[in-house]
UniProtKB/TrEMBL annotation:
<dbReference type="GO" id="GO:0032934">
    <property type="term" value="F:sterol binding"/>
</dbReference>
<feature type="region of interest" description="Disordered">
    <location>
        <begin position="312"/>
        <end position="343"/>
    </location>
</feature>
<dbReference type="GO" id="GO:0005829">
    <property type="term" value="C:cytosol"/>
</dbReference>
<feature type="compositionally biased region" description="Basic and acidic residues">
    <location>
        <begin position="321"/>
        <end position="342"/>
    </location>
</feature>
<dbReference type="GO" id="GO:0032541">
    <property type="term" value="C:cortical endoplasmic reticulum"/>
</dbReference>
<dbReference type="Pfam" id="PF01237">
    <property type="entry name" value="Oxysterol_BP"/>
</dbReference>
<dbReference type="InterPro" id="IPR037239">
    <property type="entry name" value="OSBP_sf"/>
</dbReference>
<comment type="similarity">
    <text>Belongs to the OSBP family.</text>
</comment>
<dbReference type="GO" id="GO:0016020">
    <property type="term" value="C:membrane"/>
</dbReference>
<protein>
    <recommendedName>
        <fullName>Oxysterol-binding protein</fullName>
    </recommendedName>
</protein>
<keyword id="KW-0813">Transport</keyword>
<dbReference type="InterPro" id="IPR018494">
    <property type="entry name" value="Oxysterol-bd_CS"/>
</dbReference>
<keyword id="KW-0446">Lipid-binding</keyword>
<dbReference type="InterPro" id="IPR000648">
    <property type="entry name" value="Oxysterol-bd"/>
</dbReference>
Length: 389
């Protein structure tokens, strides 16, 4: 396991070299405030060397907070466990304003987890739409009856010295054991600050919510961005309430890159909710690139990733262009043939995406559930590259 973000600079800020800053200034001069950035080609030096489909796995980095949540009898304590798990996934971020690759249509990322209690979990994410971009994902720990699923539908906007990623879409944490609870999560927005001048960093901002209808509990969170002259980096405040009466049961304060605390309003006791400095990131197991299918994320972007890590930005630009041009050619071919692309791992109905492997999945029998998930997620694809995307 590896430690969390505990460097001397927990905010992971960056001062950009003058040449790189000039490139960004040149791009910015062609943009208007509020413009959609999805179709804007960003220079490769702002890319984090992994796909957004892999970036989502950051939220599975601290399984100890959720795997045994169903064993907690008290609904409030169980709800707090879910909130802690959700908040623990944000601190893993690159230096400056690096962003993960925009996945191409049909790209997918899959991995598995092995836990100290001998259990396993499985994860699959797929880019199920390109315009607009939609990333669907599904995580399941059969022995613990835990499912995390949903989709991310980012919309990017240019704001001047910053760019915003509006994180639309809904995530769900499902405790499918004796409580049979679903926790619905709305994400905060992300802001890349200091693009044109000043210190570059990623901030979370605006509101977020965790809600469980069956337990009548809701947590309203506010991620606060730092003011120009005052304020603190990466602050978050939240209130856990009984939704029917709006009674505030607990209050959350702190920094999502450092320490978070929770206070019980009945007892007045304030406790540590999550500490990034001592957090251990649980590793995921991913097949070697040479064993991956053509459209698995690490295989698909392998040459781009190598170029970025070796700081060959010209080579990185060429490799990124090759992947994107091939994607455009395939889209054009499908259009000429009158074909409609369909996801490999997810079904679509009324703009909602559900994991195909969820059909017939019986979590009351973990052994069969694991066999079923492995068969669906890790089956070798026999179609051609044209079929897969």
């Amino acid at each position: 396991m590896s430690k969390g973000n505990n460097s001397d600079d927990p905010n992971n800020t960056e001062e950009l070299e003058e040449g790189s800053r000039s490139i960004l200034l040149g791009i910015a001069s062609q943009l208007t405030k509020g413009m959609d950035l999805h179709r804007v080609t960003l220079p490769t030096f702002v890319l984090e060397p992994r796909s957004m489909l892999e970036r989502i796995t950051d939220f599975m980095s601290h399984p100890e907070f959720i795997l045994n949540a169903s064993s907690i009898d008290d609904p409030l304590e169980r709800f707090i466990a879910v909130v802690r798990y959700y908040l623990s996934g944000w601190h893993i971020k690159p230096k400056g304003v690096k962003k993960p690759y925009n996945p191409v249509l049909g790209e997918y990322f899959r991995c598995r987890y092995k836990y100290s209690d001998g259990t396993e979990a499985y994860y699959i994410a797929e880019q199920v739409s390109h315009h607009p971009p939609v990333s669907s994902y599904y995580f399941c720990s059969p022995e613990h009856h835990v499912v995390v699923c949903g989709d991310i539908r980012p919309k990017s906007r240019f704001l001047g010295n910053s760019a915003a990623t509006l994180m639309q879409g809904v995530s769900n944490i499902i405790l499918a054991d004796r409580h049979n609870e679903r926790y619905e999560i709305l994400m905060p927005n992300m802001y890349a600050r200091g693009i044109l001048f000043g210190t570059m960093t990623i901030e979370l901002g605006d509101s977020s919510r965790v809600r469980c209808v069956t337990s009548d509990l809701v947590c309203d969170l506010e991620f606060k961005t730092k003011g120009f002259f005052s304020g603190q980096w990466n602050s978050v405040v939240g209130k856990i309430k009984k939704e029917s009466t709006q009674e505030v049961l607990c209050e959350i304060t702190g920094q999502w890159t450092n320490e978070l605390h929770i206070k019980n309003n009945k007892t007045g006791v304030k406790e540590l909710l999550f500490d990034v400095k001592t957090a251990q990131i649980h590793p995921k197991e991913v097949a070697p690139e040479e064993e991956q299918d053509e459209y698995e994320s690490r295989q698909l972007w392998s040459k781009l990733t190598s170029a970025i890590r070796s700081r060959d930005m010209d080579g990185a630009t060429n490799e990124k262009t090759l992947v994107e041009d091939r994607q455009r050619q395939k889209a054009k071919s499908r259009e000429e043939r009158g074909e409609t692309w369909k996801p490999r791992f997810f079904n679509e109905a009324n703009d909602e995406y559900t994991f195909k492997g969820a059909e017939g999945l019986d979590l009351t029998d973990p052994v069969k559930a694991k066999e079923h998930l492995q068969q669906v997620i890790f089956a070798k694809h026999t179609g051609s590259g044209e079929d897969s995307c």
